[in-house]
Amino acid sequence: MSEKEVTSSVEQTASETATRMAQPGSPPSSPPTFGGTEGGRQRLLLWMWGGLVVLIILALVGIFITKSGINLILPLLGVLLLMVFALVTIVNASFAWLRGTVVPVLAVVTALIIGSIIIASTDPLVLASAGNFLEDPTTVLHHAWDAVSLAYEALFEGALGSPAKITAGLESWIVEGNVKPLRSAVRPLSESITKSIPYILAGLSVALGFRAGLFNIGAEGQFVIGGLCSVIVGYQVTGLPAYIHLPLAIAAGALAAGLWGAIAGVLKAWTGAHEVINTIMLNWIAFRMTEYLLKEPLEHIQGTHRTPDILPTAELPRFFPHPIRLHAGLLLALAAAVFVYWFLWKTTWGFEMRTVGANPDAARYGGISIRRNIALAMFISGALAGLSGASESLGITHNMTLGFQAGYGFDSIALALLGGSHPLGVVLASLLFGVLRAGGTRMMSVAAIPLEITSIVQAMVIIFIAAPAIIRGIYRLRAAKEELGPAVITRGWGS
């Protein structure tokens, strides 16, 4: 076909299309704009729900001013949270933004159900009456229900506080100006948030490694190194004001742990040695080295196996007086989450790092340095884990003792999986683990449930997140085109 014939054919097709579009009653060639019908409905919904949010806020302000209806504060806050959820859905014009949360939420619910079965099956009253189950099943089920409800009620109150006590504390504060009952009532909630701070930072550490295609299982050792170095700077360096001493101690912990993590990164990049093996070995080196230092050169009083307390100028300030321990490490953790998101999705280095993690062959073909990105990823990952240790030592313990790590680094693997290796997901998963950690203590003391039950729940969450097909099979869910997060790419020795 000649060039003239092709041109004539294209012009004829364009003319027919224009004529068809000009005919009355013809369907629009593009979806309606924001100013059309759908846009008008969306604006109307935004105005309606936004107005309801404003009314709830005004009602809360009125309660504080009139000092009446205090028992409505918590219900109104709950409704306000649902309103915000609805507004986000309206702005997104669908529930698609929740699609990635279905499997994690169902994983947590399923883990709690399995935990309740374990609690019921190990309760002494249930075991004593189980022999008569066929003759009197009601008694067995009643004992099982009492055991599970008591355990989870204690878990809830130990993690979030008692609504009745919080309401009474609010009334005491608003009416009488006495804030002490409110502090005591919200202490469980503050403890949950406080315990989630090292989880957030350690979870970000492992999540960043996953995005780069690396399995940083050494966050526990990096946590210890970061905490130790920040404590050393905290009590050895003297004569500095707080605005210099505190950042210096934090930076010392992050830098030392970053260099510790970079050891595995350099070995991986230049020799091909697997980062899992290297980081596991570095964990044990960090543990044993710390034990030696705490028993010999850094021991404050012989037999205590701990360092001296850090100076007040190196302590992370607390937001509220005793007994609330919530400290400025929360701001540090949230800032780190924002930084990780910005670095991975808004910078060239972050794009290259994610490309290396997703497809190293394509990255190499595109001229991206694989070695540099592996070493850099392990350094940043280690620095984040070091910040986790620094937040704990400078904000809570104020010294370094044996057994300091308490499993934060190993739990961070589950956090990264549960959060889909996304900073927002890691923050939410960390809050969940903080709730389980804080509430588990009360569950043990009130309901006589072993603390290991919460560990079982966490382990079941890990299993269901690592194998989402189990959840989809149980609840008959259709497999999504895109998983919650990237697959953990673990390459063999020399690859």
Structural account:
The two termini are 52 Å apart. The chain is mainly α. The longest helix is centred in the middle third of the chain and has 32 residues, at 180-211. Residues 1-7, 13-36 and 482-489 have low confidence and may be disordered. Helix content is 72%, strand content 0%.
Report a brief summary of the structure.
The protein is an all-alpha fold and 495 residues long. It is built from 19 helices and no strands.
Tag the structure with descriptive keywords.
single chain, 495 residues, mainly alpha, 19 helices, 72% helix, disordered N terminus
- Annotation, overall tally of beta strands: 0
Q: Could you tell me the strand content as a percent range? A: under 5%
Question: Secondary-structure element order, as H and E?
Answer: HHHHHHHHHHHHHHHHHHH
How many individual helices?
A: 19
Mean of residue pLDDT values: 83
The main β sheet shows up as:
none
Helix content: over 70%
In the predicted model, the low-confidence regions spanning at least 5 consecutive residues are: 1-7, 13-36, 482-489
How far the N terminus sits from the C terminus, by CA atoms, comes to 52 Å
CA radius of gyration is 28 Å
What global shape is seen?
Answer: globular
What structural class do helix, strand and pairing data support?
mainly alpha
